[in-house]
UniProtKB/TrEMBL annotation:
It catalyses: (6S)-NADHX + ADP = AMP + phosphate + NADH + H(+); (6S)-NADPHX + ADP = AMP + phosphate + NADPH + H(+); (6R)-NADHX = (6S)-NADHX; (6R)-NADPHX = (6S)-NADPHX. Its cofactor is Mg(2+); K(+). Catalyzes the epimerization of the S- and R-forms of NAD(P)HX, a damaged form of NAD(P)H that is a result of enzymatic or heat-dependent hydration. This is a prerequisite for the S-specific NAD(P)H-hydrate dehydratase to allow the repair of both epimers of NAD(P)HX. GO terms for biological process: metabolite repair; nicotinamide nucleotide metabolic process. This is Bifunctional NAD(P)H-hydrate repair enzyme. Residues 227-498 form the YjeF C-terminal domain. NCBIfam families: yjeF_cterm, yjeF_nterm. AMP binds at K410, G411, T412, H413, T414, G438. It holds the Pfam family YjeF_N.
């Protein structure tokens, strides 16, 4: 699914109106009616008090349409116009009049004295600002947003939480509405996927308003939201005449005294995702541990308690390096020689990323399409700090372009960056916030590359499946009891889920 910016959304709105011949008011009616149905399905006519706050642009127009439908269905609805400007859009005015025609006169809010009483148990619909936000809300509009936030009432935001931009950072955090749920039109918005906006975005979903798909395709959006639809075509089914050699040989390099578990998890993951063969290259102290805990894997050993020589004999298809490796001097020196000589595809994680950060000259030796899987702290060591999440994404893009790398920045919405293309993951939940889950991801991506997946696809596919295990598991287990090993237990279900049909959305 593409992620569109505000400018792209406005272009797609306009183009759809021209191409399909429907009017802008009809498009608004269609979009806002879907939002009403979303609410109606859940409320089933309950007499809860609903406050609809409308701006004076088309986001406000949506609010007016929703208020009209709520009124006509007998809900206890209060509609307000937040009068921050005298200009009104045509679609706003059409719907203002339609609301008046059915006997519902919105209350105009001109200053703080006009704020209505809002109780914790009420519902607020936020239709103040949407796609057309050009600057931060101020004056009484900002005060209204603060006022609503302070009530802690459930807030349903239409298209955007008011005050949030799609593609740039908020500078005044008090001027953004904290949405309980957001119904956004046509595509996810980049701002919803960034940790800096965690206070404003809770849950959200996309309402398909039928914008022209060919036109959107022609915009060549660079930001993507990865769901099952994008993942399924990547899947490589197995051939009847294949054998273990067909599915490659993953070599996992890492471990140090006390941290052999990381290599164990990564090796198990590479096997479980289907790598034909898996070997581990660990310090001597890890030999028995891996042999006993992963009988399917082969093991080669280096020096005693930490890697030093990197002189393995395994003829691997791909190497995953870093889990539990440590950064002591001898490991770092050996790593430098290894990187300078290596020609095999690489997945680089954890301490191997930290060693690259300590010696950035090594970056130029990495084979094209090497996958790096940093968490934010590891990324910071590599590229320095950032002012905000948009600048962070720019820094990752530059790193990816400068060295032809694929960067997997891990987090709630892990993003895979390949040059200017970005792929944000849709799966996963806080169950994954547990020791070793990153090591498992390294093994999964390595094992997919071994089987012939293009590195960028291996990264996108692996991240999706990794998150999906937690989403499936959480139906039967608690967040707390999910561990990195549970990811492996649920990999079969995550793969099988790809072939299950989605349940129809009742509102569609
Ligand atoms: N057919 C369609 O197009 C469809 C559109 N749809 C809906 O339209 C929404 C976009 O509508 P929109 O473009 O009218 O912008 P919106 O967010 O309502 O507000 C912009 C107004 O606010 C003003 N303004 C901005 N910032 C401000 C500030 N800080 N403080 C004060 N004023 C500020 C700005 O004026 P200006 O910047 O020029 O001063 C302008 O007057 C979109 O999110 C979706 O909900 C759907 O119905 C689907 C069909
Ligand atoms: N709240 C969350 N929602 C979704 N995914 C998460 C969440 N917290 C952590 N994860 C995922 O868990 C993994 C953690 O990796 P990492 O930080 O390297 O852990 P470790 O070093 O313990 O292996 C990443 O893939 C990350 O995306
Ligand atoms: K809004």
């Amino acid at each position: 699914m593409y992620i569109l910016s505000s400018i792209q959304m406005a272009k797609a709105d306009k183009a759809t109106i021209e191409i399909s011949g429907i009017t802008s008011t009809e498009l608004m009616e269609h979009a806002a009616t879907k939002c009403f149905h979303w609410l109606h399905t859940r409320l089933q006519g309950q007499k809860v008090k609903i406050h609809v706050f409308c701006g004076i642009g088309n986001n406000g127009g949506d609010g007016l349409v929703i208020a009209r439908h709520l009124h006509q269905h007998g809900y206890n609805v209060n509609c307000y116009v937040v009068n921050f400007s005298e200009k009104r859009t045509e679609e706003f005015l059409v719907n203002y009049n339609r609301l008046k025609e059915i006997g519902e006169w919105p209350t105009v809010i001109n200053n703080e004295n006009d704020f209505p009483d809002v109780a914790f148990e009420d519902i607020v619909i936020d239709a103040i600002f949407g796609n057309g936000l050009t600057r931060e809300p101020e004056g009484f509009t900002k005060k209204l947003i603060e006022y609503i936030n302070n009530t802690k009432v459930f807030t349903l935001a239409i298209d955007f939480p008011s005050g949030l931009y799609s593609n740039s950072s908020v500078t005044d955090k008090n001027a953004v509405l904290k949405a309980g749920h957001t119904l956004t039109f046509q595509t996810p918005k980049l701002a919803f996927l960034l940790p800096e906006n965690k206070d404003f975005i809770n849950t959200w979903e996309v309402i398909d308003i039928g914008l022209d798909a060919d036109f959107i395709e022609g915009l060549k959006p660079q930001n993507n939201y990865i769901t099952k639809n994008e993942i399924l075509p990547m899947y490589k089914p197995r051939n009847k005449w294949s054998h273990k050699g067909t599915y490659g040989h993953s070599l996992i390099i890492g471990g140090s005294f006390g941290k052999i578990g990381a290599v164990t998890l990564a090796s198990k993951a590479a096997l479980k995702i289907g790598s034909g063969l898996v070997s581990a290259y660990v310090p001597k102290c890890g030999y028995n541990i891996i042999q006993i805990s992963v009988p399917e894997a082969m093991v080669e050993v280096d020096n005693d308690a930490a890697l030093e020589y990197y002189n393995f004999k395994t003829k691997a298809t791909v190497i995953g390096i870093g889990p539990g490796m440590g950064t002591v001097e001898k490991t770092a020196l050996g790593f430098e020689l290894f990187i300078k000589e290596n020609k095999l595809p690489l997945v680089i994680d954890a301490d191997a990323i930290n060693l690259l950060s300590q010696n950035k000259l090594l970056l130029k030796y990495l084979p094209k399409n090497t996958v790096l899987t940093p968490h934010p702290k590891e990324l910071e060591r590599l590229v320095g700090t950032w002012k905000n999440d948009f600048e962070k994404l720019e820094k990752i893009t530059k790193l990816s372009q400068d060295y032809n790398l694929i960067i997997v920045l891990k987090g709630t919405h892990t993003v895979v960056v390949n040059g200017t293309s970005k792929y944000f993951n849709s799966t996963g939940n806080p169950a994954l916030a547990t020791a070793g889950s990153g090591d498992v991801l390294t093994g999964i991506i390595t094992g997919l590359i071994a089987q012939g997946y293009k590195p960028v696809n291996a990264a996108i596919f692996g991240v999706y499946l990794h998150g999906k295990t937690a989403d499936i598991a959480i139906q039967n287990t608690a967040h707390e009891t999910f561990t990195a090993s549970t990811i492996l237990d649920y990999l079969p279900k995550a793969i099988l889920d790809l072939f299950e049909e989605e349940v129809e959305n009742p509102e569609e």
